[in-house]
Amino acid sequence: MAEIQIKGVAKSFGAFTALHSVDMTISDREFMVLLGASGCGKTTLLRIIAGLETPTKGEVWIGGRRVDHLPPKERGIAMVFQNYAVFPHLTVFENIAFGLRMQKMPQAEVQRRVHRCAELMHIEQLLKRYSGQLSGGQRQRVAVARALAMEPEVILMDEPLSNLDALLRLEMRSELKGVLAESKTTAIYVTHDQVEAMSLADRISVMNGGHIVQSADPVEVYRNPAARFVAGFIGNPPMNFLPAEKVGSGRYRVAGTDVAGPDTDTRIDYAIRPEDLTLAEPGQGLAATIRVVEPLGAHTLVTCDVDGASFRAVIDSDSRVNPGDRLSLAPMADRVRWFDKETGLSVQ
Amino acid sequence: MPRYLPYLLLLPATVFLIIFFLYPFTQVAIESVTSNGEWSLANFQKATSHWKFGEAFKNTMLLAALVVPIQLVMSLTMATVVQKLQKGRSAILYIFAIPLGISDLAAGLIWLSIFEQSGFLNSMLVGLGLIEQPILYLSYQSPWIILFAIVLAEVWRATAIMMVIIVAGLGLIPREYGEAAEVFGATRWQRFYKVTLPMLRPSLQTALILRVILAFEVFAVVIALGGTQMPVLMSETFNWQFNLQDRGVAAAYAMVILAVSVLFTLIILRALHVPKEART
């Protein structure tokens, strides 16, 4: 059992605050993805959990044990690094065996574990090679096998796929998900790639400026972003925002149309995802003038002007549209979201 | 760019080296194996049969065997400490490197001024009341003290060159390797021994070869502190050339130093060889 609890963890580097009091619980066997742009504090948080960084404040608990004062090796963790960190002077076998050798594990058990993990990652034929003779993807497999061989309670991954080319990344992604689900370890995975986060995570924690903005399952994060930042960060293309003017109790005027919204006195913005719009009869929905048309095969992405603001819609690729055309875009009513203009938080 | 341009640009340096290095070197080499205009090994026989040859050879090897390991350990320690510094790193590096700017003779004289009978060490000890009379340290009756003083001066003078090379080498090792080793349970010592040292082999090679060759050429420090008490290969070369006026034997000595240097270079290259596939 390895539940991870982060209690009020903060980290400053001199005058710069990388993490502001983060609280988070990761359940046993959960696959948690820390998602955010570079500099948001996600890697710092991971390194604090690993023990490579000391928190300025707060506590880290793994499996009911407080670990923030312990060195990495006493935390029951293993880690996969962004640049693999596969030792160039050791063979693949010795790389995978590295952690086991440090524990002075009997040779027979080392053999058994290395072969099992190599098999799992499909690198049995590479065991005698050095990392200089491996491709990036193969090195990544070695790095994952080395972590799995430890049979850790928690496996930490710092952007493990970011140095691979697109096709390989896709392949490794699904493979990683399968292997980790089977190994039954708790996993924390840091990435800036929202697609990777969505596809791997049981739960995504979106981070921004040293805070966790939202922690929820991928579909929830996508459908009900807790803040404007999340709405703009997740989804490709991201959510559209339009200013809303209150015209009555729970009634708003958005781009010249009347819309029902939350009954609140704070100033709010209207938001809708590009794929939650349908083409409607003129006069029904938002009046848009097309500026750019990008056919993507399954869909066509159109960038329009709506009420002077840039606005994107994903429409059927059979609908023949051209720049300059005027469209009526009807939002699906239950997919409309509202965000506080000041705080950026979701308003319901 | 014309294809011959690089060669043209290299020409002056090449000509310079041929005239001022290759030519005299060949001359010395030939001189060492000729005597009275005929090919012969007489010079080597004369050199090695002299009683001072064995002494000089032994002293040179002994000095290298004492100095280089001490310097290796010290430079590794110093480099590791410097590497860890957050602030003032370059200031410390410069301070450590000061002895590098001093010629070997000057370095020998500095240590002579400490150890000689009226030197700093004696004045200090007398001043502190620890001894009554100044002691004669560097005398023929105490060759071990002379040896100790030379080792001390050499360590002081030339450790920094190894340290500078090793600091550069350490900087080339990505931090992730050390962190990976730490996460996977290596202690501080194991991280150094199992990860840093093997990855440092190319720099260690350079530092050791440079240092070992210089150790075989030790001269001015020995002369300054030991005078004629401690013959080494280089001082004997000098002696045969200028005092005994026998260029052939001096050339033979030079060849012996060269042979020893080449041999040890090969040994170091071999011992610290990194196979191509195990390079980063």
Automatic annotation (TrEMBL), chain A:
One of its GO terms (molecular function) is ATP binding. PROSITE patterns: ABC_TRANSPORTER_1 (PS00211), ABC_TRANSPORTER_2 (PS50893). CDD domains: ABC_MalK_N. Residues 4-234 form the ABC transporter domain. Transmembrane segments: none annotated. Keywords: ATP-binding, Nucleotide-binding, Transport. InterPro entries: AAA+_ATPase, ABC_transporter-like_ATP-bd, ABC_transporter-like_CS, ABC_transpr_MalK-like, ABC_transpr_MalK/UgpC-like, Mo/tungstate-bd_C_term_dom, NA-bd_OB-fold, P-loop_NTPase. It comes from the Bacteria. PANTHER family: BLL2173 PROTEIN, MALTODEXTRIN IMPORT ATP-BINDING PROTEIN MSMX. Belongs to the ABC transporter superfamily. This is ABC transporter ATP-binding protein. It comes from Paracoccus onchidii.
TrEMBL record, chain B:
It is a multi-pass membrane protein. Gene3D superfamilies: MetI-like (1.10.3720.10). CDD domains: TM_PBP2. Keywords: Cell membrane, Membrane, Transmembrane, Transmembrane helix, Transport. It comes from the Bacteria. Residues 57-268 form the ABC transmembrane type-1 domain. It holds the Pfam family BPD_transp_1. It is found in: Cell membrane. InterPro entries: MetI-like, MetI-like_sf, UgpAE/MalFG_permease. The chain crosses the membrane at residues 7-25, 61-79, 91-114, 144-173, 208-230, 250-272. Belongs to the binding-protein-dependent transport system permease family. This is Sugar ABC transporter permease.
